[in-house]
Design a protein that fits this description.
With about 425 residues, this protein is an alpha+beta fold. Helices cover about 30% and strands about 25% of the residues. The chain has a 6-stranded mixed β-sheet with strand order 10-11-12-15-16-19, with helices on both faces. Strands 1, 13, 14, 17 and 18 form a 5-stranded antiparallel β-sheet that branches. The two termini are about 30 Å apart.
């Protein structure tokens, strides 16, 4: 399974993370023994012909990268050879759920430099970066005039390295701040709160499944439980998937017993099950799960299991239809990552959700409510926003009041969410 989550829209939100170092992909070939096998001999012959006869002298490392990428990516549309800074760091951040950076969320594009808020407990917050600060320069390098890629490059650095920021507050007063970069959580659980305090209906969104998601979810559910939550809306819209075991762990919160998903590949089929003696005690509360065409892979594992076990009512539009599990290997010396499709999965009842021209694919919700592309985009953008820490709210509200600008955008119109609330209120939702 894979994860491709990224922030969308404006105001854009960013955590400034460090990318990996330069990728010496040529090392990958050097550490492989050329044993005289015909395929390697032929590769060398073609490579040498291209290198000797192409009209311009090609980059030998780029030839290797292209050959490896072509080999892997010819398998299917999901298998990938990742070798650039952006690719490998993004993949690690999405699967590990952490990154190296200073912990700042920007108002608008990163190259604009205006801080919306520092994340709670982040290096930026500890160093004194405040709501509304404009980042003028980093280590003496001006941010103005940089494009997004160039701006990101200025923030990169190793854990414990120091970035000197020149800031201007909302009144224009300038100051210098030294921020020590650290390892930060990139939260996949967003907006946990009681969306209907009177009826004690909780809400939270999962933007992807990283190795940190289960613990994040457990903490959020503990807080909602302390508020005596009596029903929950779990939002998987726009969630492209991620780590399979995390989706399976999540299903154990709501399924009492039985199969969660089945996989089949070149080896023996595997059934992942929830047994009564699992450490996690299943929750017995009304559950509605929101899905749409952006819900894929691990999201479909979770949603499909909950639907088959009748542990939840699914609301929204049909899911993406990616029923494939991927194996991942890091090639450390080459600083490259390869992910290949290694098995297919089905729901507990045996439904194959994978896209196919020969049959329906994906999951059809129990209550179908289709949205136009514009409304769906607004909803995804809202889901993907980071939550400001409580200590920043007063400053954000004051900024909004003084500027007469919407600093914290309100939630968009959301018929799918309204239908989920209607179900939990024992009302009749609109839909098919």
């Amino acid at each position: 399974m894979e994860s491709r989550h990224g922030s969308q829209g404006s105001p854009s939100v960013f955590f400034i993370g460090v990318l990996l170092g330069a990728l010496a992909v040529g090392i990958l070939v050097k550490i492989q023994p050329f044993s005289g096998e015909e395929d390697l001999d032929h590769y060398q012959e073609v490579r040498d012909f291209v290198r000797d006869r192409y009209v311009e002298e090609p980059d030998p490392d780029e030839l290797v990268r292209s050959a490896l990428a072509g080999m892997v990516e010819s398998l299917d549309e999901y298998s990938r050879y990742l070798s650039t800074h952006e690719e490998t760091s993004t993949f690690d951040r999405e699967t590990q759920g952490s990154f190296t950076g200073i912990g700042v969320v920007f108002k608008g594009p990163i190259e604009g430099g205006r801080v919306l808020f520092p994340m709670g407990g982040s290096p930026a917050a500890k160093a004194g970066v405040r709501v509304g600060d404009l980042i003028i320069s980093i280590d003496g390098e001006p941010l103005e005039g940089k494009n997004e890629a160039e701006a990101r490059e200025l923030f990169r650095g190793a854990v414990d390295s120091i970035a000197t920021l020149k800031l201007a507050d909302l009144n224009g007063e300038e100051r210098l701040v030294e921020v020590t970069r650290g390892s930060l959580l990139d939260p996949t659980v967003r907006h946990p709160h009681l969306i209907d305090p009177e009826r004690k209906i909780g809400y939270l969104a999962l933007t992807s499944f990283s190795r940190e998601t289960t613990e994040e979810f457990d903490r959020a559910m503990t807080v909602l439980g302390e508020h005596e939550m009596e029903g929950l809306i779990l939002d998987l819209r726009g969630n492209p998937g991620g780590v399979l075991v995390c989706a399976i762990d999540m299903a154990r919160y709501f399924i009492v017993e039985g199969v969660i998903t089945k996989t089949r590949g070149r080896g023996e089929p595997v059934a992942y099950e929830r047994s009564p003696d699992d450490e996690v005690e299943p929750m017995s509360l009304p559950l509605v799960v929101l899905v749409d065409g952006g819900s894929a892979s691990a999201s479909e594992v979770l949603a499909g299991a909950l639907q088959d076990h009748r542990s939840a009512v699914l609301v929204g539009s049909p899911t993406f239809g990616k029923a494939r599990v991927q194996s991942v290997r890091h090639f450390e010396e080459a600083k490259a990552i390869v992910k290949v499709t290694s098995s297919y999965y089905t729901t507990p009842s045996g439904r194959d959700l994978d896209r196919s021209p020969e049959r329906p694919w994906g999951i059809r919700p129990d209550v179908v409510i289709e949205l136009d592309a514009r409304t769906e985009a607004f909803i995804h953008r809202h889901i993907n926003r980071y939550d400001p820490p409580a200590e920043a709210l007063d400053e954000l509200f004051a900024w909004e009041s003084s500027s007469e600008e919407e600093i914290l955008p309100s939630a968009p119109e959301d018929p799918q969410l309204e239908a989920a609330l209607a179900l939990l209120r024992s009302e009749h939702p609109e839909g098919g």
